[in-house]
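Colleagues,

For the teaching module next term, I've prepared a clean inverse folding example: a structure given as tokens, and then the sequence designed for it. I'd like students to try predicting residues themselves before seeing the answer, so please don't circulate the second half yet.
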């Protein structure tokens, strides 16, 4: 079992930055793949990015490439999503998800464990 807790969401002006955290327990993050997804009202869940412990290890969705960065802090057992140059269309609930398999999948069905989500609202 893997438990995930997201934090760091909030309200930010367009062009600003936020860093989301995904704290894991039950397994060390050096042995799991962690994906980030987001869901805006009335829209499907969208792949943001993913990281695994095998190199090459980080992949991003097209809509966030060059603006978002995923990183890991093994000592804190936490994965981060640094979001820069935020736009109003980045507004969504952001979820982290984990798989005990090595995966770079952009499909939410590839991940077995999910956090509760954190709201990000970007205003212009």
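(Answer key — instructors only)
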């Amino acid at each position: 079992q893997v438990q995930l807790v997201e934090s760091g969401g909030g309200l930010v002006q367009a062009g600003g930055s936020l860093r989301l955290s995904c704290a894991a327990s039950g397994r060390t993050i050096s042995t799991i793949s962690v994906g980030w997804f987001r869901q805006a009202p009335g829209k499907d869940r969208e792949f943001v990015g993913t990281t695994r412990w095998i190199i090459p290890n980080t992949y991003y969705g097209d809509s966030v490439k060059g603006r978002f960065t995923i990183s890991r802090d093994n000592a804190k057992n936490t994965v981060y999503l640094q979001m820069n140059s935020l736009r109003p269309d980045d507004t969504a609930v952001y979820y982290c998800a984990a798989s005990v398999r090595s995966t770079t999948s952009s499909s939410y069905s590839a991940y077995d464990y999910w956090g509760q989500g954190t709201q990000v609202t970007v205003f212009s």
